[in-house]
User: Which sequence fits this backbone?
């Protein structure tokens, strides 16, 4: 139990109850417009620019942004904070890819569709393993963040807070599908942006830059050191980790399919630019901890602790609402996109190729419920810190960057080559994670994958016809 | 009559009584327990470490940098703390219960925990930085170059 909990339990319970009911009701209301499986999975493929930008932005502002970015600032200093903000590069670079994907696969459903058609079944299965492991890791880290947040701010046991958040998001995603996810994301974006702007303003007014800098220089000079070795190693690692997450994950591919024609490029670009300052703001809040004399029992709780300490119950309520919105906006997106992947690539792709629309619609709901239950069960033991869990998945996702980028650009390359790049990249990334540290796992994975992908593309004599992708539909292989 | 048996009985009674008194005194005075520190998040190559301990009530935690003097870095009721921004060198931490029943105690310090902070060599860090920068430039080039028109055969492609 954290002794610095500042939000009284009844207040926390009321906030959680109000927002839980609100999100579920909104999700159900938005979901009434769903008429077909395509509506449920891809919101009818005509999401406009405003909603598209908001959902991309809100999904990428996760609990990791609001809790892990401060953690990294507290552990790795200035570069930890800046490095985390380079996660925006993934969104910015995905903008042209989203345009390309929409043009090449106007009827596509998932990122798995692309890998299957482009590289064949073996590479597809390797990709699915990586993607599902990542999705599960992200889901668990989000669920853990929910429990930690509630515990840090209100003293409510971790298990209870985590359970309520997972159940709420699962319910409204089941009721409304991607349409509900995007609609709630829009409201959640407004809450997140307004809340963070208010918090940052209050920190600057109440503490100021000079006292924060003076205390850090006196007590923790390493955090201001721009040549701190681990931070230097982390910088591009985090950039590549973010790129790997976005380039491979069906969370972003499904949106590329769902956004209206010509919307994807502008939406991802705008979302990236809006996201860029968020980790800086969140990280700055963490760096104020020494100046405020706030003890940090677990580094992933530093932001809520500082805000609660600085602004009392009002600040704690504000952080609580912001992080709850950030959590929900990511958890729902991940549940929806991962269930799409499981439905399209595993259920229909491997188990029931002849399943009809009604069966698939029912299966989609059950898969979301099962995913929520699995995330809940895995988050319950509270394994490791958020950053440790998150960065373990970096070794996996960074290995997919080059097979995807090269595969979208050039016609050469083979399934065996792409699969080798993903497997070798992941293995080497995991070795680096254990031997050197979490801050190089994605970097090593991406480097090995780049070498293997380049060599196999050069050696390959196969020529892929991109027109094959245009015919991609959600039919089994 | 068994004199030896009476002696044994008296000895047993005294032993029980003394054990009872000792136990009651221990309960009244409270155990003078030494706090044991442990590392729960080891970032010794990145300059941070999270320490944890078991104790009910306030704790005082001190840190020593190399052969310097002990200084208090935390006093409060939490059961862990994260110390970051640490330079290369040998660090030691020790802790003791600080308050018992609203009375400040002067209990003995627990065993010191020693951790050597050893950052990665700067050359290694710059090496990783350079590899990352090169990959970023390649990625940028791959994305920024004009894309092939959809549906066009991709025969001439080169990575």
Assistant:
């Amino acid at each position: 139990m954290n002794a610095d909990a500042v939000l009284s339990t009844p207040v926390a319970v009321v906030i959680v109850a109000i927002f839980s009911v609100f999100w579920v009701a909104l999700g159900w209301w938005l979901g009434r417009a769903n008429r077909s499986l395509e509506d449920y999975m891809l919101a009818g493929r005509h999401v406009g620019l405003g909603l598209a930008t908001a959902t991309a932005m809100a999904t990428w502002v996760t609990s990791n942004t609001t809790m892990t970015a401060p953690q990294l600032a507290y552990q790795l200093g200035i570069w930890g904070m800046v490095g985390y903000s380079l996660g925006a590069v993934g969104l910015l670079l995905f903008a042209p890819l989203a345009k390309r994907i929409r043009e090449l696969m106007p009827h596509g459903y998932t990122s798995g569709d692309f890998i299957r058609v482009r590289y064949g079944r073996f590479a597809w299965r390797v990709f699915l393993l990586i993607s599902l492991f990542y999705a599960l890791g992200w889901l668990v880290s989000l669920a853990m963040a929910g429990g930690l947040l509630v515990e840090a701010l209100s003293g409510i046991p971790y298990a209870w807070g985590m359970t309520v958040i997972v159940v709420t998001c699962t319910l409204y995603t089941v009721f409304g599908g991607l349409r509900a996810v995007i609609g709630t994301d829009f409201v959640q974006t407004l809450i997140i942006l307004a809340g963070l702007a208010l918090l940052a303003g209050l920190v600057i007014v109440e503490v100021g830059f000079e006292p924060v800098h003076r205390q850090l220089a006196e007590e923790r000079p390493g955090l201001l050191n721009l040549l701190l070795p681990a931070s230097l190693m982390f910088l591009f690692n985090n950039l590549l980790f973010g790129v790997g997450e976005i380039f491979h994950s069906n969370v972003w591919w499904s949106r590329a399919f769902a956004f209206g024609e010509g919307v994807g490029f502008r939406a991802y670009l705008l979302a990236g630019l809006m996201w860029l300052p968020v980790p800086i703001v969140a990280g700055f809040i963490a760096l104020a901890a020494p100046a405020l004399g706030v003890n940090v029992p677990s580094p992933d709780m530093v932001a809520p602790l500082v805000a609660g300490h600085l602004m009392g119950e009002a600040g704690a309520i504000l952080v609580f609402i912001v992080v709850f919105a950030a959590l929900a906006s990511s958890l729902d997106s991940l549940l929806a996109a991962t269930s799409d992947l499981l439905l399209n690539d595993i259920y229909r792709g491997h188990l029931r190729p002849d399943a009809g629309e009604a069966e698939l619609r029912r299966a989609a709901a059950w898969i979301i419920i099962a995913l929520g239950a699995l995330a809940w069960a895995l988050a319950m033991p509270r394994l490791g810190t958020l950053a440790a869990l998150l960065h373990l998945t970096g070794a996996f996702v960074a290995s997919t960057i080059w097979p995807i980028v090269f595969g979208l650009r050039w016609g050469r390359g083979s399934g065996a080559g792409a699969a080798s790049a993903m497997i070798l990249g992941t293995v080497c990334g995991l070795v680096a994670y254990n031997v050197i540290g979490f801050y190089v796992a994605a970097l090593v994975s991406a480097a090995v994958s780049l070498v293997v992908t380049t060599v196999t593309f050069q050696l390959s004599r196969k020529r892929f016809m991109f027109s094959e992708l245009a015919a991609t539909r959600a039919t089994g292989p | 009559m068994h004199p030896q048996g009476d002696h044994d009985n008296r000895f047993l009674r005294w032993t029980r009584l003394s054990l009872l008194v000792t136990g009651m005194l221990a309960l009244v005075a409270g155990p003078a327990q030494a706090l044991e520190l442990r590392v729960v998040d080891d970032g010794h190559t990145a300059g941070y470490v999270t320490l944890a301990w078991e104790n009910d009530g306030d704790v005082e935690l001190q840190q020593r940098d190399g052969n310097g003097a002990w200084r208090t870095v935390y006093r409060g009721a939490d059961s862990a703390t994260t110390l970051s921004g640490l330079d290369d060198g040998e660090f030691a931490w020790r802790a003791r219960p600080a308050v018992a029943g609203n009375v400040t105690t002067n209990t003995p310090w627990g065993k010191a925990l020693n951790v050597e902070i050893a950052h990665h060599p700067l050359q290694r860090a710059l090496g990783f930085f350079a590899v990352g920068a090169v990959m970023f430039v390649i990625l940028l080039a791959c994305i920024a170059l004009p894309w092939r028109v959809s549906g066009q055969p991709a025969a001439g492609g080169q990575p």
